[in-house]
Write a structure and sequence with these properties.
heterodimer, A: alpha+beta, Ubiquitin-like (UB roll), three-stranded antiparallel beta sheet, elongated, B: mainly alpha, Ferritin, 2 domains, 2 strands, 68% helix, 2% strand, PaaB_sf (chain A), PaaB (chain A), 1,2-phenylacetyl-CoA epoxidase subunit B (chain A), Ferritin-like (chain B), 1,2-phenylacetyl-CoA epoxidase subunit A (chain B)
Chain lengths: 94, 318
């Protein structure tokens, strides 16, 4: 099969002070083209002030079939949450 | 036998029933995957082919204001096609395969785009009616069960409302213009009304995909429900324009709380779906031409990128 332009994941910071968020993906021959296409495709209405483009092949994703084992360690640690601690009602705002 | 296919399918259905979204790497029944590849790519192709009838009027828009709006709308449609192709690709099919399916006539696109845009009023009618119908369908799809599809729909719906408003504004301007302009708007409505009602697909009784699609929450409303919604919302808009919807049977039904409307010509629908509409050949030909004539650009860009990468690697090694 013919070679295709690689896939890129696009992240946009909507305004300074906020994080970059994943908005979608696109194909482009290189990073410069990915950047230009991301500008045209994902920021036509002032959706962002900064763009990251990342080759999709460089993303390592967790396996949903292993989510159980992966996230199990945090399941039984209620003491990591503030509501775990019994404090008197008189103590406001803590 | 906790891993049997039946159990997997049952737990998949349980997730859907609980309202969970399905993401690309999750296990899914093969038919769920295939149905989505078919449906989302069909939707993507519709956006791309849908650029053609409107593109026809960009150079002849009656004012600069209309021209920039139409250009922006057609550009949005390219973007919408891209969001949808990307969503389809998460299911394990390549962009080239999708394009090839379209060009080979194996994949469908919305039949509405096989009708010609004969006058400027058609651009108004498309924005008002075709985009109006699309929005009804797409608002429903923002809640569909497959995550990437639902997210693409949220983006698209946000952008689409300008499309419908610019269309209605074109119609309104014509209807408040000369007698000839109003006549042109009426003719456009006459030609686009029925094909727009067909956009929602065959009646529920004959729709082969509806039942399974509802079960998997791919669709949340049936074709006939969506069609009724379209009629109910459009009648008062036509009244506002002072236009007549070309249906002698159209009548408010007090007991149903909906408009009754006439019989749709399903023979016409199937004729156009099967490739014999007024513009089927022209549309596919235009797509094929763009694909073939762009081939050298795609190859050259890739060759350039590879060469640059090599050069960078060499200079890093030195």
């Amino acid at each position: 099969m013919k070679k295709q332009w690689p896939l890129w994941e696009i992240f946009i910071r909507s305004k300074n002070g906020l994080e970059h968020r994943h908005v979608g993906s696109l194909h482009a021959a290189d990073a410069k083209m990915a950047m230009e296409n991301a500008r045209d495709v994902y920021t036509r209405r002032q959706e962002g002030v900064s763009i990251w483009v990342v080759p999709s092949k460089h993303i390592t994703a967790s396996n949903p079939d292993e989510s159980g084992e992966l996230f199990e360690p945090s399941m039984d640690k209620a003491y990591r949450h503030p509501t775990f601690y019994d404090l008197p009602d008189e103590l406001k705002h803590m | 036998m906790s891993n049997s296919l039946e159990n997997l399918e049952q737990s998949f259905q349980d997730r859907i029933d609980r309202g969970e979204k399905i993401e690309p790497k999750d296990w899914m029944p093969d038919r769920y995957r295939k149905t989505h590849i078919r449906q989302i790519s069909q939707h993507a192709h519709s956006e791309i082919v849908g650029m053609l009838p409107e593109g026809n009027w960009i150079t002849r828009a009656p004012s600069l204001r209309r021209k920039v709006a139409l250009l922006a709308k057609v550009q949005d449609e390219a973007g919408h096609g891209l969001y949808l192709y990307s969503a389809t690709e998460t299911l394990g099919i390549t962009r080239d395969e999708l394009t090839e399916q379209l060009l080979a006539g194996k994949a469908k696109y919305s039949s509405i785009f096989n009708y010609p845009t004969l006058s400027w009023a058609d651009i108004g009618a498309i924005g008002w009616l075709v985009d109006g119908a699309a929005i009804i369908n797409q608002v429903m799809l923002t809640r569909t069960s497959f995550g990437p599809y639902a997210r693409a729909m949220v983006r698209i719906c946000k952008e689409e409302s300008f499309h419908q408003r610019q269309g209605f504004e074109i119609m309104l301007t014509l209807c408040r213009g000369t007698e000839a302009q109003k006549q042109m708007a009426q003719y456009a409505l006459d030609r686009w009304w029925w094909p727009c009602l067909m956009m929602f697909g065959p009646p529920d009784a004959e729709s082969t995909h509806t039942e399974q699609s509802m079960k998997w929450k791919i669709k949340l409303k049936t074709n006939d429900e969506l069609r009724q919604q379209m009629v109910d919302q459009t009648v008062p808009q036509a009244e506002l324009l002072g236009l007549t919807i070309p249906d002698p049977h159209l009548k408010w039904n007090e007991s149903r709380g909906h408009y009754d409307f006439g019989e749709i010509d399903w023979d016409e629908f199937w004729r156009v779906v099967k490739g014999n509409g007024p513009c089927n050949k022209e549309r596919l030909e235009a797509r094929r031409k763009a694909w073939e004539e762009g081939a050298w650009v795609r190859e050259a860009a890739l060759a350039y990128a590879e060469k640059e990468a090599e050069r960078t690697a060499v200079s890093a090694a030195v």
